Amino acid sequence: MYRVLIVDDEPVIRNGISAFINWEKEGMTVEDHYANGEEALSALESLSFDILITDIKMPLLNGIQLMKQALVLCPWLKVILISNYSDFEYVKEGLKLGAVDYLLKLTLKGEDLLAVLHRSISMLEEERRKDSEWNYYQQGALYLDRKRVEQEIKRYIVQEQTFPESTVWAPVWLEDSYTCVYLMLDAAEEWRENYGYLYVQLLLEELQEAFYLQIREGCALLVSESSLFVIFPDLEGEVEQQLGHWKQQLEAKWGISTSVGFVKEQGVCRILKGYAESSLACQRRFFEGLGGLYRGSRSETNPVQTLTDRELNHDWAPFFEMIHNGDPASSAVDFALERWKSGILNPGEVQLEAYTLLTGAYQPHEDAGTLLSERHELLSKTETLEQLASFMICELEEMGKSFIPKLSDNGYSGQLITKALEYIAAHYTENLTLQSVADIVHLSKSYFSHLFKKQTERNFIDYLIELRIREAKRLLTQNDCRIYDVAGAVGFKDVKYFSKVFKKITGLTPVEYRESMK
C-alpha cells in the first residue's frame, strides 16, 4: 500500500480531495488532517510516506518550503502541488524541484487527481525496480569480490606462502584489526555416515552463505571436509560474546554442534598466522570436549614445539606389561592418558602414538596386520581424547577375549595348533586336559604336547592357566562378585588353589588385586 499525505490549511479542501478517491481500491492509504507545513514536516520525520499532496500557500511553512525539506527526509517522495491561478511562479519553482504535476483548486476533478496519482505510483514502481536491479548488481559484485579475496587467501594458505605487506586484491578492512575464526562441525563423520558426504558439503556451504547474509564485510573459506575459516573486521563490543551468540544461532537453526577457535590479528601479512592460531585453538576440543569456543593467543611468531628425547622416547614398558599380564585394558589406557593429558602432543600425534601402542599390543596375534588395517582409519577419526580412550579400551578388551598367540610356523603343524588354540579359547572355563584337546586335533597326547610347546613356546597347562587368570583379572575389576564365583567362572574348581595360582602369577591375592584396580 502506498501512503499519501494531504496538507492544506482549509479543511474543506483536504476533505474534498480525500473524498475524491477510493484509496483502498487504488492500493493507497491517506492521512488528511495536517493544516500546515510544519505539522506535515513533523509527521514526515516520524513516518514514511510515498506521495505528498500539498497546497502552496500555507501559514508557518508554505508548500515549496515543505517540499524542499520533505525531499531531504524522503528522497523518493512524489509531490503533487495544489494551487490557485496567482501561484504560478511558485508552481514553476515546484516543478523545477521535481514536483510530478500541479492541479488548480477551482477546477480540481477526481479523475484528474487519480491520473496524477497513477503517474506518481508508476514513477515509484519504476524507481524501485531500478533500485532493486542496482542492489542485485551491487550484491553480485560484492559476492564476486569476496570470492576473489577468498581464492587469494586460500592459495596462500594451501601453498603456505607468506603474505606480502600489501596486496592489490586485499580489501581495506584487512589492513586494520580483524578476527580469524576456525569452525569445525562436530561429529562430522557421523553426519556423513547418516546423510552422505554431499549433505555435509552442502551444510557447510549453507553456513558460508549465512555468514555472508549476516556480515557485510568478511570472507568465509571451506578449508576441509568439515571446517570453515572465517575472517571479518572487528565488531563493536566483546568479540567472544558476539561469536558465542552467532555460534548458538547457527547450531539452533541447523541442529548441529560446532567447535570454534578464534584469534584477533591485524594486517594482510598476518592472515596465515591467524589461520594457524585459530586452527590450533580449535584443536583444544580434542582435549577439552566438543562444542567449545576457544580463544587463541596472538603471537609474533608461531613457535614449533620441540619435544625432548625423553618425551619422544617415552617408556611404554608398563603399558605392554599390563596388556601381556591380562590387566584391565582401562588400566593400560589410563597409563597412556597420563602422558596425553599433559598436552605435550597435538591431537594428530596422540592418535599416531595410540596407533603405535595398538600395533605393539596386536603383535602376538596371528591376524595383527588385518586387524590393524581395519581399525587404523577409525582411530584417526576420533574427535576427542575421551573417544580415543574408549576406542582403545574396546579394542584391547576385544583382543584379550580372543587372545591367540602368533605361531612360529604357518604350515600344517601351525594350522593344527591354531585349531587347538581356538578350541581352548572357546572352552577354557571347562575341564580341559592335554588329552581332550589332543583328541580334537587328532594327535597323540605326547606329540601334541611337543608340537604345542614348539609353536607357542609354553606348556599346555601353563597356557591354559594364563588364559584363566587373564579372564579372572577382567572379572575382578568389572564386578563385586565373590572370589569363589570368579574362580568357578574361569574354570578353577578349588578356590584356594585359584588364589594361590593367582598370587603366584600376579604377586597379589584376588582381593588385593581388586582393591589395587579401584
From TrEMBL:
Entry-linked CDD domains: REC_YesN-like
Matches recorded under SUPFAM superfamilies: CheY-like (SSF52172), Homeodomain-like (SSF46689)
Entry-annotated residues carrying 4-aspartylphosphate: 55
Signal peptide region: none
Residue intervals of the HTH araC/xylS-type domain: 418-516
Origin: domain of life: Bacteria
Gene3D superfamilies: 3.40.50.2300, Homeodomain-like
Keywords, sorted A to Z: DNA-binding, Phosphoprotein, Transcription, Transcription regulation
Entry's transmembrane regions: none
Residue span, Response regulatory domain: 3-120
UniProt name for this protein: HTH-type transcriptional activator RhaR
